[in-house]
Amino acid sequence: MKRTLGICYYPEHWPEAMWADDARRMAESGLTWVRIGEFAWSRIEPEPGLYDWGWLDRAVETLGDAGLKVILGTPTSTPPRWMLDKWPDMLPVGADGQIRKFGSRRHYCFSHPGFREDCATIVRLLGARYGRSPHVKGWQIDNEYGNHSTVLSFSPAALAGFRLWLERKYGNIKALNEAWGNVFWSMEYNRFDQIELPNQTVAEANPSHWMDFRRYSSDQVGAFTQVQTNILRASGPAPLIHNFMTKSTDFDHFEVAKNLDIASWDSYPLGYLEKHSTLGDAWIQTYVRQGDPDFQAFHHDLYRAVGRGRHWIMEQQPGPVNWAAYNPAPLPGMVRLWTWEAYAHGAEAVCYFRWRQAPFAQEQMHAGLMRPDNIPAPALAEVQAVAAELKAMPTAETGAAPVALVFDYPSVWAWQTQPQGKGFEYFGLVFDFYRALRKLGLSIDIVPSDCASLGQYRVVAVPGLLSLAPALQQALEVFDGTVIAGPRSGSKTPDMQIPTGLPPRLPGFDCTVEYVESLRPGLTQPLSGGGAFRLWSEKLSSRMPVRETHANGDPAIVGDEKHWYVGGWPDEAALHRILQQACAKEGLPTVELSGGLRIRDTATHRFFFNYGPEAQVIDGLEVGVAEVKWAPRGAA
Ligand code: GAL
């Protein structure tokens, strides 16, 4: 697969007289793709039913004439103000019951049937007009589902939809009462129309009630997408794409992407280091101008799986952003490094956000490839350097990874609903496993929880997986490598009840979690092999051999030849050891990477990325700060 570059562009923000020159400079810089239109509804339909296609026709034409391929966005994440006169109740409602207002974006509730219908209309018109355009080579559906916390909406439309969804799922109210355990606290319902959304209850709502609301809300994102994808599929051959986000877990991305051709995601390494890092100030300080060394890679591997092998970066940070607590500039070299890292993980295209910095409105402090005065910003030269390098190495086929890590959205919702200990976060647990594997120099595939085949892997990790789907259950039954599970894996039924016979309900794991405890910061459980459990520890009994014990001799990690159960949240040292031992047993070579140096193997090359503050030498190569290098595989 050929690797390409692209850009996000807003012709409606600039005088038409600038478009041709912009397009020429984009093409001359080596860009192939230009994404437009995703926020332009008020310019396409300034008044209800009154359309102005002329400017968009000319923009598409101008960009196409310069040799660029257009990705056209459906503008449904920014409904115009007049839409609210028509549907005053389409706004999302927060868990606090407050209606969210117009004046930014994503001001719609996924459940609102009238708005969904109006989305279908605008998409139908766009599809009819541009579906066979020689210049429109892709569609972006909406923009960043989940941004600004808009998947969970506690609106009247959501309530009506939820009741219907429950009725369809359970058929009769007795079945729902049973599945939720509503005999507890006399919560039994007589009819579906008595059920409310799970916010604003006096004490906490039933976790099963929450789980069904989370599943319902996720399904609405899928249904909303499908309205658009059905129309666009019929309108022409261009692939359908959505731009997902980092650490975005409010809906099941695997499910939503089943209607798409390509999963793209938006990569803002510095903004997200500030926003998401849980590792404290010293860590942030070390990586403040580079980003977390594993965070981008994790999302590449995740979205490669979400896109069933096809993924892009739709928005790549080019300089300081405007939305984090602090917004530093990247070190020189990082834009190039992030781009090559995307390619090394299989991305087909990397598009930067945005062409020129806007001098007005919310994102006027957000860098682009051009300054507001139309002079190149620092990132442009790095993008041009990548474009030149791509001529020498235009492909980078994804290599076969020896390790799989299961990631599952319902498990996120389950442990958010019932953390049992402050800080028990599923994403964080999976990410700890991911980082530890990468620090051993391994290339990893992230796989969904309905993954049906694990045959190509030697080690499969399933930390914290709520419950097993039948496909994964069968795949694990025949898997002949090492499976590492726990903590909390197989610990609930999908309804969110404790399974009969106690956890873990995992094939081949002959052990029992008798009870669990959560550990406040500072309270750790040392392990016999070194390191400790933190946050979470389980009292295990096991018919399998004990591999490691707690200080009092109780089993902490148990396992036979193929199945290892980890009864707690291992700290870095413990996790490193456990995974290293599993790889050694399976004959997988590992390396000890220090600092911010990371490796990724493609089918033909080994890539080295240095996120750290010091130059590093590996395999005889010196990799400078903010530098990426590569060598043919097996050359070292
Ligand atoms: C993304 C979004 C873009 C822009 C960008 C700024 O989340 O899709 O429209 O807002 O962030 O960093």
Task: Summarize this entry quickly.
By secondary structure, this protein is α/β, with parallel strands linked by helices. It has 18 helices and 24 strands. Strands 1-2-3-4-5-6-7-8 form an eight-stranded parallel barrel, surrounded by five helices. Strands 10-9-11-12-18-17-16 form a seven-stranded mixed beta sheet. Strands 13, 14, 15 and 19 form a four-stranded antiparallel beta sheet that branches.
Give your account of this protein's structure.
It is a single chain. The chain is α/β, with parallel strands linked by helices and 636 residues long. It folds into 3 domains: 4-86 and 139-151 and 236-392, TIM Barrel; 403-585, Class I glutamine amidotransferase (GATase) domain (Rossmann fold, 3-Layer(aba) Sandwich), CATH 3.40.50; 602-632, no CATH class. The chain contains 18 helices and 24 strands. The strands form 5 sheets. The protein has an 8-stranded parallel beta barrel with strand order 1-2-3-4-5-6-7-8, surrounded by 5 helices. Strands 10-9-11-12-18-17-16 form a 7-stranded mixed sheet. Helix 1 (19-28) runs parallel beside helix 3 (54-65), helix 6 (156-170) packs across helix 8 (207-235) and helix 16 (426-439) crosses helix 18 (572-585). The chain is globular. The structure holds beta-D-galactopyranose (GAL). Beta-D-galactopyranose (GAL) is lined by residues 143-144, 147, 266, 268, 315, 321, 353, 363, 366. Beta-D-galactopyranose (GAL) binds next to loops.
